Amino acid sequence: MLFNGTPLASHASGIPIRMNPAFTLHPRLSEDCITLGRFGLCRLLLMNDSHYPWFILVPEKSGLTEIYQLSKLDRMRITEESSFLAENLADLYRADKMNIAAIGNLVPQLHIHHIVRYKNDAAWPAPVWGRFDRTPYTEDRIAAITDQMHYRFKDFLIKV
Length: 160
Description:
It is a single chain. By secondary structure, the chain is α+β, with helices and mostly antiparallel strands. The protein has a single domain, classed as HIT family, subunit A. About 25% of the residues lie in helices and about 25% in strands. The chain has three helices and eight strands; from the N terminus they run E-E-E-H-E-E-E-H-E-E-H. It has helices at about 25-30, 70-95, 140-150; strands at about 1-5, 5-10, 15-20, 35-40, 40-45, 55-60, 95-100, 110-115. The strands form two sheets. The chain has a five-stranded antiparallel sheet. It is globular, with a radius of gyration of 16 Å.
């Protein structure tokens, strides 16, 4: 949907929300992830690797590589969105530990990983990066996770 040439997304309330037309997701994130929706500041992605429930928040602001580059208000918003996501993922997936990190060595665009970890997962207690070849989700599993996230976050997650 467009409003005066600006893309809009619909919130669950039906109120259109302006999207940042200058924002472009880094090609590596586009290739490796599935877009689930958008919170007020950040796009919510699912890493297409079925080894772990692995979600990524990306602020829809152009040219950012570090959290400190956000405005003070947006730093508070990203902290709230990250904490909200982590708390809900920990509850939903019954996590033993949530790994949350903004590293950005391969993908310079600011993004925050939220990885649900279990003491019995294949990489525990080591980091998940580069441990195993990715095993993509099936289309049915992607649809189920997408539905689950939209149900869980129905008052907060915008479909894009």
